[in-house]
Amino acid sequence: MKEIDLEKYSSAFTLADMEIFVFPELMYSLLLANIMSPVIWSWREDKSFKKLEGKDPYKKLMRLRQFIMDEFEFNLDLETWGVTDKNAEIERFKKYIPAEQIAQSNALFGYEGDKYYYDVDIRKHFGLDKYTTDTIPYWKTETVEAMNAFKYKKGYKTGAGECVSLSTLYGAAAFIVCGIPLEDIYMVLTPLHSQNFIDINGGIITNNRRMVTKAMWFNGTETSDKAQRALRNEQITIVAHNSGLIHCMYNDATIDKNAYEKFIGRLNDYLYYPLEPLSVANFLRSKGQYQKHFQFCRDCRGNAQFVRAEKLFSYEHDSNFRVCDNTHEKLLAEVHEEDFSNHEYPKRIRCDQFKEYLGKNKPDIYTEQGRIELAKVLQDYIPDSEKFVDELYHFLHIEPKLPGNDRNYIPSEPIKITPDMSREDIIDYLKSIRDKNITADLAFYAYRDMANCDWQPFMKSAMERSPVSIEKTKDKSMDDCYQWLLSMPNDSIYDNQRLAQPDEVANYTRGDGIEKAITLSNIIHKRNPQQQIEIYINNDNVSVRADKTYEFKSSKGFEKKITINEDKYRIFS
Q: What is the pTM of this model?
């Protein structure tokens, strides 16, 4: 095998948050691994997608959203993949990124974002607050197979995954199932989140299991407010695309400069919303404290009737209709007569008159002068009208903190696959560019294709970053560990000659004999690092030889000998 960066290539198996931050190629490699996976290709045969054959990609995306919500939970359990040591991780990566820069941009190393995150105690929300010492969680990203396998874990009825897993799943499924070209899919990572920007129909952002259109982004609901958090408050660390990537801390960028500039323009268009009656109503939905300053009016047989804004917004909770959109009149029709007044409420803005003012005067809230003028118009109704206008402006005005485009753009080989290619053709193409595209090369490692990958990085990851299998067996004797592994179904979560890591075996309580043998070797190695371990793989038969011999059965079809001697891993074919 060619000489490789063992740290980087072994990280393709672990896929931890920290590793993706340091080695950003891994993000798109996982997307490609999911595109190679037969799992997502099988979704095409789902009857709900078969019905949409020939329909436009947007309709398929809307169906995909419901499919993913039905099939996957959002997993925020930071202990799923065990813990590591902060200082060990810093030591591991110091030759790539200085420790102080890691702390500024990575959630596991103290990052909390700007003032917003302090206000909502976001670290407590994510469960990071309990990691206040040198112990931090492995925040690992799952392949689609590992996401599906959550159904084997106690407490889960379906598949699951965290935000990075879900974003790569969405990106791959948008390509395979919805036929959206990779050129139109941009992966956007921040220290605490991962989303995709899909450049169709004015833009769609995937957010965990959901998708958010531009209209939804600004509708002022709690769900949309949460979806906005990352882009409103965090530095975007990585933008990954089929042409390459750009990283907030690396001067060299491989993304095509024109593609990146297009993305910036399209994202800024998505994040812009004009001042109009609907946007004001959406703002009032988000900032309910201001509803008390507004009232709505309807015509009732030639007479004006009025309803308090907060009352009308309360009707939305049990209705399919909304304030100020094209269902506004239907919402008014649902209001009880007793909630209307025949008299105008004093010191409240009449929304019909405010709508008329906006139409005639068109105040430009995007200029300081426009905001001053608008505040003057509202000052008789809203005690702190300047604050109101300022918050309205920030509701409509989002400036993403993107990596600057003043980078050293290095030409790179783009990923040239199209939705009309077969899965087999895509795999063959990616194989053909492995020697000139590191992202494609790493994709086969993330895909766990051990027939076409160096086993040394796999063993390094398995022996050095599999704490769950250690934790689950800490009170077991070696014979008990062996019996525990034998009692598991002899089924891998990966098909063909693809292998699971020890912690996947431990978490999902199943595995092929090779996977079980490596898991047992990891336990032995942690208990006695000086013990030399030999793993013999002879097609069906697998044995681990240490202080004694342990036998397993495999259906993976490999012939290998692996020796583990302290931190050295040697592979013999």
A: 0.93
